[in-house]
Amino acid sequence: MPTLGRILLVEDDPSDVELTLTALEDYKLANEVVVARDGQQALDYLRCQGEYKSRPRENPAVLLLDLKLPKVDGLEVLKEIRSDEQLKLIPVVVLTSSQEEKDMMRSYTLGVNAYVVKPVDFHEFINAVKELGVFWALINQPPPGSMKK
Amino acid sequence: MSQLNLEQRLAGSPILGYAFSIAAVAVALGLALILSTNGFKDAELPALTLAIAFVTWYAGRGPAALAVALSALAYNYFFTPPLYSLYVSVSEIPTYLIFVAWALIIAIFADVRRGAEHDLMQARDQLAAANKELESFAYSVSHDLRAPLRHSAGYAELLRRQASSVLDEKSLRYLDTIQASSKRMGTLIDDLLAFSRIGRAETNKTTVELDRLIEEVVTEQRRDAADRNIAWKIARLPACHGDRAMLRLVFVNLISNAVKYTRMRKPAEIEIGCRDGKRDGNVEIFVKDNGAGFDMQYQNKLFGVFQRLHLAEEFEGTGIGLATVQRIVQRHGGTVRAEGAVDRGATFTVSLPKA
Questions:
Q1: Are A125 and A40 in contact (CB under 8 A)?
Q2: Is there a contact between B191 and B318 (Cβ–Cβ < 8 Å)?
Q3: Interface with chain B: mutation pick from A13, A98, A106, A122, highest number of B CBs within 10 Å
Q4: What's the confidence (pLDDT) of residue A2?
Q5: How many domains does chain B have?
Q6: What are residue B230's phi and psi, to 5 degrees?
Q7: pTM over 0.80
Q8: Are B209 and B190 members of one domain?
């Protein structure tokens, strides 16, 4: 049995959070998900500050990042992560509604590991999220220093 | 361009404007004096009025007034009896008035031109602002309209999972419809965004071998329609000048339409050929089929966004294909037209610049 990595889901929309968790539930991945509702909360979690002060200092196996977020948006979070010595190796997958070339270019320029457009069709959406979860939390070897179960 | 630069430079500095005024009158005066000593009389009036015109046109009112004054002075001093004195006789007054009137006329023309130029600039700025707004509009459409759609489709599916055992057939059909509609709306949004992107994207124009391009597209279409009986007739095609990816989209749309609308024909016939364009330097490529065709009285609707001449049950599609074709062809400075008759096939002809 491969070890499970923890997933940090950064998503402001409660419906999207629920649907994503439902998709991951099918593969028993949902327990491994930490949800951050905006960019600042995601950075607090990653840096073990604010409400996450007492959390053990380990990085998630993957970060599923929405681009349009309150306070600090996804691209800023990505930029912060990539310029932080402690965080820069974390695999980041952008999971967004935007198919705009501009967003893709900027995400890849900032060093994103994958860019996934959320499909409108629920089955496609569930499949996309499942595959992401399975690949990044189970198949992929995260960089050393990531937390495992 | 250099005109505009001269004008901008003069407008930028009043001293430069006045210097230009003095220089222009001095040159005109010098020219007139040289000509008159060489036996060419009466050059002073044309030379000075020309100087006044130049100054008024390029340097504005202050320098123009100075040019009129200097011209009057020079004329009086060098060209009216008694020579080399500033004595003003009544007979000279009409000449001075001509200087003034002339400057006024030119000033009016310059004002009209500047006004038009200003309006043009303003329109250009407004257009740029509108484009920018449109871009951010498309951007938020892409972001914000999709999410609620995904949710309604997603929760309908969750409801089905949760309650399918207690729902009757009718309720399940309602759920189907909710999901199908969400999906269709998603497709419409995607199509619309792709369409607006074509209008905004920069074109990367090169020489495009249409032979190769059409072969690629047809091979693809044949694969998708492997179960169909289609007689293809493809002529040799020339090269044209354009953006390859965009032109590919044009022919993908036209050829896949031909395949789609000949579905009930056995065999279907699709012909792709070319002829010289009516306009010089253009080539016309046509895609002809023996399919469902259309009524010529609706041909103006063919190229409209989301305009369709068939029901979705007869032929699937959103109605963005030909609008995309038209927009791309227009961005290449070409045209597209359609001929057809109900049940007797259609011919689409695009005209594109030659390589």
A1: no
A2: yes
A3: A122
A4: 43
A5: 3
A6: -120, 125
A7: no
A8: no
